[in-house]
Amino acid sequence: MYKHQCCRYPIKIEHEGNESTMNKGWLTRKNQIILSYSEVALAIIGGVLPLLFIPQLPHITNNIAVIIMLFMIVLFIRGNKFIRLCVVVVISFSWGCWHGEDIRRKIESLSGTSHLLQITIVSIPVNTSEKKFTVSIDKIEGKRVFPPLYATWKWKGNSSISVCAGQRWLINGKLNPLHSSLNEGGFNQQRYLLSQRIIGSLKGQQLELVNPQCSLRQNVINHFSDKLHFLANAGIIYALMFGERGLLTEGHSQLLQNTGLTHLIAISGLHIGIAYLIGYRFIWLAQYFFPAKWINENIPMISGLLFAFLYAWISDFAIPATRAFLALLLWAYIRQQPFYCFPWQWALWSVAFILLIDPLAILSDSFWLSSFAVLAILYWIKIFPLSDNIRYRPFIGKIAPLLHLQVGLLILLIPIQVLLFGGINLMSLFANLWFVPIVTWIVVPTIFSLFLLPINYWQELAFQLIDEVLVFSLRPLIFLEGYWLEINSISWYVIFLFWGLLFAILFHWHKNYIGLLSCIVALLFTNKTASKHESHDWCLTLLDVGHGLAVVIRQGELAILYDTGNRWQGGSNGKRQIIPYVKYHQITPVGIILSHNHLDHTGGVDDLTQQYPWVNIRSSFGENQHLPCYQGQSWKWGKLKFDVLWPEKLSIESHNNDSCVIQLDDGYQRILLTGDIEKEGEKALVAQYQHQLASDILLAPHHGSNTSSTALLLRTVKPRIALVSSARYSPWKIPSDKVYFRYTNDNIKWLNTAEVGQITICFKKEKMEILRYRQEIHPRWYHLWFGDRPFP
Predict the structure, then answer these.
(1) Which residues form the Metallo-beta-lactamase domain (predicted)?
(2) Average pLDDT over the chain, rounded to an integer
(3) Which of 176, 366, 483, 556 could lock 427 by a disulfide, CB 3.0 to 4.6 Å apart?
(4) What is the dihedral of CA 433, 437, 438, 441, to 10 degrees?
(5) 663, 645 Cβ separation under 8 angstroms
């Protein structure tokens, strides 16, 4: 027979004789090498990891997937250890690609024509008057959907009908595929939506209410919602109870992010662990009152799992909570097995288990953050264990482990925090030391008591207690918020390099291969530095801001902005796209030019001037403290000359035809920036300047609308490239098909931000390099255009 030692539990055991030997951790029998779970876990992770980087998915249909699977099984059975590891990698990669390709195919089928869909309302927003729900797509034309897919659905039905989560509807719907603005430094919403399996927004008429009943979770939310609205910290309590951040104020969100406490305000790994501990301890203590024959060591663990499941359920099985619960289930399973498992092996298996169930979790920032946090804890405890002399002291022994752990997390998670949040708070150590124990031992247990003791008097008292505790605990955080340190940019290569060096220390590779490791570090740093400072005279970037306009003209470390995009309630393109881009490239804005006074061109100026109060603003509408921008003005900035061609005079009303039109000239190339100028303005420009308008690049006037881009203007300017700033789902249906064909018929290269994302053109004398976000800057399969193409 054979023994199970230290997690070396084999996947395949061939009973050939009675001898078994343990050779470097492999269980072997007559030279038949058998894989350990840890090796398989690494192979699974290695197989799914390329989904982060590959530019295109291989077209793996169901039939091809079955063929690959059968072929790999044959190789696995007959191959050696290396072949078997390769088989697991290929199967994992194919499994991940199949998930991505399945989503792509379903998006294409749903976006072309209307389909009969059965949907279930999953969640309803709590802080908006707009009835826009998240729904799961259960059936397409009567066929059940697997794996599950989600979408948003805007209710346009009878306002007298009560709509709630859990209801099932039959609709005749068409999909607007997922799509988002893509810019360097900005939030990658398209990748986030795919990681959540949200494939877009549904448009269609509801036909029949299949099941009018609200879900039990929705009834629980309705029961508590009325009691929450009167509390000062209703948003935080709501987030901790149900995993929904809809009631969080912008002030609370900013405070928690700047103090490194965002991880607490969502039901995730920490909260699932607390729920397990509450359930475990509750039954463990209760067993003191049981007869001896009823006492069983597994009952507290089952109770803990039930409490954890309840908390995951109340969060509507949010992705982070579900991942944490799966890892907890795996840990409970391991405890019942006849072998010992090291913590790092459990962490490795958990990551592989999650990716096996949902390969698209690899696209999620929260997945990486939680995975790195667990690895950081295990690494820190292994390399820098807390001394027993400190651990067992009467008072210090209670505080020292938490302090020791927080110091390790602060140091080891710096790279990924910079990548995800754009900076770190050096005081987050003290913020976590203060806030985490309060949430862990007071707030969350009290929240659980609300669910377990449905007594109105107690619930009102408990809500008041939680609110007062939060008011008290949030006050010191205001003083710690000011220590937020912005770090402009960091890439994934730095994170992998950082953690690679840490593992080199863990396995003592630095002692034997110090020279090799030093060369790798130097080589990577040199390559990064070289790519970061490529030799260009200057660059022009048209940011992807939807229906709006934002152009960044940069020379060296300085930049001038032409328009600042749109603004909406709670945000702007200035805050969401322009400032992150500027920080990513570590450049400083010195001026802003506003073409005209329309919201989709001036919307981000307030956020930009708040962030960069020294910038000069130039406009055509005579605003106080603005420099003028009208015909005849000219200035030099570095290697660039700015000539203002239009308007003839300042205009307070500032219509489209009053746009500030500027021609840039570096002595080799000319670029014409046109704002929203229309046919009348174009005609006047041509009449005054004629062939002086000739330019290599033309910013298509008015977002490619049919009100502009006349054949006269194109014949006069004779551009090689047209830049278009537009939204994919523009309510005005622009750019116009007629305008698109007008450009392409003249052999003018058409570059539209809605299609290619951010567009950057860099110049070096007569040379020009065009970089599109979806094609050259970050070519990834999850950045591609999904669904049909209703416009150019």
Answers:
(1) 547-728
(2) 85
(3) 483
(4) 180
(5) yes
Asked if the bond preceding 701 is cis, omega within 30° of 0, the reply is no
Q: At 42, is the pLDDT very low, low, confident or very high (cuts 50, 70, 90)?
A: very high
pLDDT above 90 coverage of the chain, percent: 48
Instruction: Determine the 3-state secondary structure of 151 from DSSP.
Output: strand
Q: State how far the alpha carbon of 86 is from the alpha carbons of 44, 67, 79, 601, in Å.
A: 10, 17, 10, 53
**Residue 173 φ then ψ, to 5°:** -125, 155
| Amino acid at site 376 | A
CA-based nearest residue to 579, from 485, 458, 489: 489
Residues 237-266: pLDDT tens digits? 998 998 888 788 888 888 888 888 887 777
Count of CB atoms within 10 A of residue 565's CB? 32
C-beta separation of 537 from 639 below 8 A: yes
Q: Answer yes or no: do 573 and 712 share one domain.
A: yes
**540: enclosing H helix or E strand:** strand 538-542
Do 178 and 243 have their domain in common?
no
Distances (CA, A) of 548 to 249, 719, 740: 27, 22, 18
Domain that holds residue 48: 35-105
Asked whether residue 6 is assigned to any structural domain, the reply reads no
Q: Write out 356-380 in H/E/C secondary structure.
A: HHCHHHHHCHHHHHHHHHHHHHHHH
**Tokens linked to 785:** 């255009």
The answer, yes or no, to whether residue 9 has pLDDT greater than 50, is no
This prediction's pTM: 0.87
pLDDT at 6: 44
Parallel/antiparallel/unpaired status of strands 198-211 and 143-154: parallel
**Does 485 or 141 have the greater pLDDT score?**
141
* CATH number for the domain that contains residue 681: 3.60.15.10
**Do 621 and 686 sit in the same domain of this protein?**
yes
